[in-house]
Amino acid sequence: MTNENILEIKNISVCFDGFYALTDVRTNVKRHTVHFFIGPNGAGKTTLLDIICAKTKPTSGNIMYYPEGREGIRLTGMKEYKIVEEGIGRKFQVPSVFVNLTVLDNMILSLKGHKGIFDSIFGKPSKEDMENIDSVLERVGLADKKDVRAGSLAHGQKQWLEIGMQLVSKPEIIMLDEPAAGMGKPETFRTGEILKDIKKECTVIVIEHDMDFVKQAADIVTVLHEGKILMEGNISDVLADKTVQAVYLGRGGE
Amino acid sequence: MKDMLKKQGSNICFAFIVILLALVPVMFSAGLMNSSTVLFLGKCIAFAVVAMGLDLIWGYTGILSLGHGLYFALGGYAMAMYLKLQSTGGKITDFMHTGGLEELPLVWKPFLNLPLSIVMIILVPAVVSGVIGYFIFKSRVKGVYFSIISQALTWAAYSMFIALSPYTNGNVGITEIKSVFGSIKGDANRGNMFLLFYISLGIMILIYALCKFLVGRKFGKLLIAIRDGENRTYFSGYRVSRYKTFVYVLSAVIAAIAGAVFVNFNGSITPSQMTIAYSITMVIWVAIGGRGTIIGAVIGAFLINLCEYNLSSGAMVEIWQYLIGALFCITILFFKGGIVGFVKDHFPGDKKAAPAAQAKTEEAKV
Questions:
Q1: pLDDT, tens digit, 9 for 90 and up, residues A200-216
Q2: How far apart are CA B121 and CA B79, in angstroms?
């Protein structure tokens, strides 16, 4: 029986020059769920993602990752490209697609495997890879934009392209930092639907402020506050919680 | 037809330049050109080659190296050492005598035969740039810090070459050498000169083809990806530092090949080819021609040098340096894409490369 948790975050603390960005954070992420981390600014949400993908080193604690049908892997201390190879993808807060390349090129660069120099000089994406790209572009609604320069896409489309770039690398976990930031209502809703669709294949970890979006897509919500976990549960429990309302929701969702 | 022009614009433009250059010996034979112009155009071929290498690393990968003169000179010295030994018949040179050496130093020994010298032309800069690149890129030094380090290293190498005068003839450099094909001076040796010219042209074509091939593959897209979002590329699972080191070594080797070609036409090599000023001049060629296009590097190298050749005599000699500096600033501030970028923006699709080629033709004819 495989572990039902795909990620176990164990007692993570991070200290930046005496300031604790995270204190003893302990939580699990379940397979094939959309797991939201919410909380006021400075609660440590982005830092937590940074630690998972090795952009930041934790002061103490570690993170275990259990890929489907494989042994557990200790992520703490690994190099970022290794973590990507193991199947954990990350989308940053600012849309960071390669603006001078076409949508298709962006997708090709994100394909799983073939990351060596020799491969990229002489290799060509296989037919399955191209079909995979087509189907992902279809799902994120960019099928007709293949040859468009990524820099000329609208903001929302860039975000979707980036989600697509994550998907095409067939990760087990996708981490999204504010995917709906700067989007209008219909685009946000669309993004939510995309997330619900992709959790069939992988686990999605999301940081978000927009409560309607959280309600629409979340399976589990973890509320962070000042570097600590305030509470965790499904969305209706979290919304009903008095402390959460006081520190977070009470401020008009910010 | 329009579509073909749009896609093949730079190749057509390059073919145009090649044809013009191929006609140079013919024009010389017909008495339309003097021999120093031919030698000068030969040097321009070398400059175009080094510029293409720089375009790979700066235009595509976004790493501004202000020290490629070092690799240019390393290739140049390696070639010159072989040629010097050819002219002394393998004996020790005058400057070694003066420096107190009794026999040929070990570092000169590989340059006794041509195949080994060619290996050294490629190997020495590859190893030097490989070691430098490995450590610099592994520790993720980038941007302006890299530029400063590349300058400092060039300066250090320059000082070293001057200090080691028994081996390098210091400030004077290695002079009084013939080309690989023998003397190219005078009417009797016209055949040698033409051979050298066409071989060099062939090297330029090969390097162009290599660069075009590389940037057309996924490799080239990845270089652009590194330039536009290095962190993002790491998180797409690429070992960016390896790619950077690879491109750095590649462009260093291309610079060294260019240096070797240059020496054949120039008949000497001095440490001044290793200076920071010289390295920056190379960057200016690429900037003005147009970054990230390969063809822009070729156009820039020819255009700037032809201007310099024609203008830097007489009254212009004083202000030429200021002029080129001003031109560089204007390009960086207002025409980021250089000449090629300007043409692309103003003639989208149709006839895009033609005007630039036209301008070049006028220059070449002067």
A1: 888 999 998 888 888 88
A2: 7
Query: Rounded distance, CA B260 to CA B258, Å?
Result: 5
What residue in A sits closest to B218 (Cα-Cα)?
A120
CA distance A203 to A8: 13
Per the CB < 8 Å rule, is A85 touching B229?
no
pLDDT of A48 over the 50 cut: yes
Mean pLDDT of A117-141: 87
d(CA A191, CA A160): 7
Q: Which whole-number Å values give the CA distances from B306 to A174, B263, B288, B322, in the listed order?
A: 55, 19, 13, 17
Report chain B residues touching chain A, CB-CB < 8 A.
214, 217-219, 221-222, 224-225, 228-229, 231-239, 242-243, 246
Token pair in block for residue B297: 């590097």
Give the pLDDT confidence of A143-173 residue by residue, as tens digits.
888 889 998 888 888 888 988 988 888 888 9
A84 and B243 within 8 Å at the Cβ level: the answer is no
The answer on pLDDT for B282 being more than 70 is yes
Q: Record the tokens describing residue A149, joined without a space.
A: 């320069």
> Is residue A65 helix, strand or coil?
strand
Cβ(A214)–Cβ(A186) below 8 Å? no
A78 touches chain B (CB under 8 A): no
Count of CA atoms in the C-beta half-sphere (13 A) of B321: 5
Q: How far is B327 from chain A (nearest CA, A)?
A: 26
Contact yes or no for B252/B58 (Cβ under 8 A) = no
The distance of B238 to chain A (nearest Cα, Å) reads 6
Read off the pLDDT band of B365 (50, 70, 90).
very low
Which secondary structure element, helix H or strand E, spans residue B132, and what is its range?
A: helix B114-138
| Cα–Cα distance for residue pair B92/B82, rounded to 1 Å | 12
- The residue with tokens 């002067």 is B366
Cβ contacts below 8 Å, chain A against chain B, sum to: 67
Q: Predicted ipTM?
A: 0.77
| Percent composition of chain B: helix, strand, coil (DSSP 3-state, to 5) | 80, 0, 20
